[in-house]
Amino acid sequence: MFHQLSGAQQLAVGWALRFRGKPPSADALRAHVRTRLGDLPTLTHRVEERPGSRPHFVPVRDLDLGRHVRRLPVTDPGEQWQDCLRTVLERPLPDAPHPPWDLWLLHGHADADAPGPEYVLVFRIHHALEDGAGHHYVLRTLFTPYVPAPRSPDVQVTPAPVDGVGRISPRAVLGIMGDLARSLRGADTWSMLRRPPTGQLATAVGTVETRRLLALSRALGTDVSAVFLTALTGAMRTVALAEGERPAPLALLWPLSVRSGGERGAVGNFLTMVRLGLPCEEPLPQRRLASLVRQLEPGGLERRMRTSRALLRLAPRPVSLGTLRLLMRPRHASLTGTYFPAALPQPVLGEAPLDGALGLGAPLPGQLCHLTLLRYRAQCTLSVVHDTAFAHGAGLPGLWLSALAELEAVV
């Protein structure tokens, strides 16, 4: 489905990592990647679609890593490393018959806080081959001390069979049906998010200390996801007011992974979507928080994941594909957002330690903005990948930080 969704807008997702140290040569980086390819099936497969048959994954033999692992020197010495990401986002992914992924080595950018040399690695892959949990697996496999991965089932290409139908929750089915019904209704609000996409993507980044978010979530008796979305609600309320619109509820897609433990490194996208309502009409931060805490109730999300997993495997393929397409319609939700805590040991590449990380999402077709809050060690980084038709995307991290401070004032 993600393969068919892409169309003219490539769904390239991934991450960017900053390492402290002298950058490796492109050949050295390719040699390092080659040593790990046996444990990374998402990098050795592509989607093939033939007339009269459904799309399927096929292995690619004898990868030409020169097409996938690339060096990109920064020509403007005044650019910060986050500013360099747009250059990468403008590049097309390798096309067939090559797997659609690339890894870019950026160096030569400015960083006044850097005590020495540094470089950035930007990884992108088509969303049909990998989701957020898959990114995490690739990151761990590439940059942590090498331990051969089990050959099965982690490298399987097809999903594991569902463990019976007892996982289906009637309440979750009703929730899915409600989301489908809402996807059929149009919206006459948030006009700045319903403009035609230009196809040109840009990034904006904001950072906050992890301990600050954890302390705030503890003080509010909730978790980081609820704090993240409450601050985002406040930021989008500010956007509406700046546009002269009356703040209205805003639908956001919240991805949920339906991978099982044995599918950590499996090829494919294992996501389903939940529609959340950001209560931007609420002027009080504490009331926004209460609404989102109810929607993010852990038991409800767990039932939704289990039920979606079962239905995706038991329902006829046209039903599964049609349901997911409806859930991802831009008129159903104007934004996609996700929070991902990266549980990693200290990754290194050669002698260079990892010093910063951010996630790179992709707006779904018809959407203008995707937000990722990535938690890595002492820092949480909000990355906004937005179409340039959404002019407020560049300032969204700053508005989010201001809304976070407003929430802290409540405490």
The largest sheet is: 6 strands, mixed
Alpha-carbon distance between the termini?
44 Å
Based on CA atoms alone, the radius of gyration comes out at 21 Å
Mean pLDDT: 86
Quaternary state reads: single chain
Helicity level = 25-40%
The sequence of SSEs as H and E is HEHEEHEHEEHHEHHEEHHHEEEEEH
Widest beta sheet: strand line-up: 4-5-6-1-12-11
- Shape by Cα distribution: globular
Structural class: alpha+beta
The helix tally amounts to: 12
Number of distinct beta strands: 14
Strand content: 15-25%
- Poorly predicted runs: 151-166
Q: How would you describe the overall organization of this protein?
A:
There is one protein chain. With 411 residues, this protein is an alpha+beta fold. The protein is 33% helix and 24% strand. It has helices at residues 2-6, 26-36, 65-68, 85-89, 132-143, 170-183, 210-220, 224-242, 285-295, 298-314, 317-327, 396-410, and strands at 12-20, 45-48, 56-59, 69-73, 101-107, 118-126, 201-209, 250-257, 271-278, 335-341, 348-349, 352-360, 369-376, 379-387. A hairpin with a 2-residue loop joins strand 11 and strand 12 (352-360). Helix 8 (224-242) crosses helix 12 (396-410). The protein is globular, with a radius of gyration of 21 Å.
